Amino acid sequence: MKNFLIQFLPPLIPFFLLVAIGEFLSQKGIVAPYILPPPSEVFLSLVTDFQEYIQACKETLGAALLGLLLSAVVGIAAAVMLSLSKWIEKSLYPYATFFQTVPIVSIAPLLVIWFGFGLRTVVISAFIVSIFPVLANTFSGLRATDPALIDLFKLYGASKLDILLKLKLPYAVPHIMTGLKISAGLAMIGAVIGEFIAGGGLGGVIDASRTQQRLDKVFAAVLLASFAGILLVFLLNLISKYFLHKWRELR
Fold first, then answer.
1. CATH of the domain at 180
2. How far, in Å, CA of 123 to CA of 199, rounded?
3. 11 within a domain of the structure (yes/no)
4. Domain of 57?
5. Alpha-carbon distance 213 to 28, whole Å?
6. Taking Cα atoms as reference points, which of 89, 60, 61 lies closest to residue 198?
7. What are 181-214's pLDDT values in tens digits?
8. How far is the C-alpha of 37 from the C-alpha of 27, rounded, in Å?
9. Residues 134-155: pLDDT tens digits?
10. Which pTM does this prediction carry?
11. Rounded to an integer, what distance in angstroms lies between the CA atom of residue 30 and that of residue 95?
12. How many domains does the chain have?
């Protein structure tokens, strides 16, 4: 219990303090409810529309997880390909960087045109936003492999594939996990943005509530999206600790 309080109580104090200040400002009329709804109304909305929020949260979290999984597979594979030769790196890495700098909001309408409304577009949106940290960190980890160890593998007649699978990729595990932890939050952002255009999930709830002037539902959905993102990052942290613990044991 003591460890739980030490870990979780400090972040909760500012949260409840902000909720109390928001409730005070709204109840006293200092801030208009169409600008800042009372937190009590947001909480009431969470209770009365609980099933709608849970379903929307499942859709958004599922799309973010699929996008993150896709970014992990494609990002690691692309990093391996880039690490094979300097020529491939110089030819393709600038495009990977360009891919990251394109605002997802500007291309989300194109995704709907190409892939239609629904889950597919949302997953692709999450994938586009979250792939670069995985790619960049994996590539950095592959390049950071100790040259002395590579020479030792070559000395014993190891093939390039053996060096990749038995040395470079295991050596890059901490970098890969760092990239995945960064991408976890980005995948949630990409999923919500995709839902603004493609519909469904928490992004769809936020967009529909905005047009209905239901600011309490907007705040409730944003809050749930934040908590879902925190949950995703927390799960990645647990997975990262497990893999890094195994990695240290193997070393």
1. 1.10.3720.10
2. 12
3. no
4. 50-250
5. 21
6. 60
7. 888 888 988 899 888 888 788 888 888 888 888 8
8. 9
9. 988 998 888 888 788 877 877 7
10. 0.83
11. 50
12. 1
